[in-house]
Amino acid sequence: GLTDEQATLVVVDTNLCQRTKLLPSERAHAYLMQQNALKAMKVKATVSTIAEQYSESNRTIQRYISLNNLSPELMERADNEEITIRTAVTLSSLSAENQNAIEEYLAIGGKVNERCAQKIASIIKENDDVTLTTAAEVNRLVTELMAAGMSLEEIFEAVRAEHLKKEIDEK
Length: 171
Hints:
mainly alpha; 71% helix
């Protein structure tokens, strides 16, 4: 008989091979299931093993696996091709709060491309105390990012000032 892990690998492999068009969320989930099964079987290079099996690069497999960190709403946008896979991968590295703020921004018609997502992510990572809490904050950040000649530091200072003002107003 097959172990649970071997059975998972067979089922996922069959699913990946039989279906021609898989949504990004389905591919992400399938690769994660395979990675977990391989890890449980003590296989060392799980990503390489999966990449080799499906003639993909290690980086592609890693990207899809990282999509499992996306909020359900952003994952749905990736599935519907409202945001690209690379944009989704970048957004998947953000906290749930920041993903929710970006989702709110997208829900009111905002647009975030890969470059913009990378800039937002780098601002947040460089200043780990920043949480974008509203669509308005994301909108302001995106607008300022798109405005010519404004540095990330200046944009961050504006966001920080806004947060301080809000905290003072709440007291």
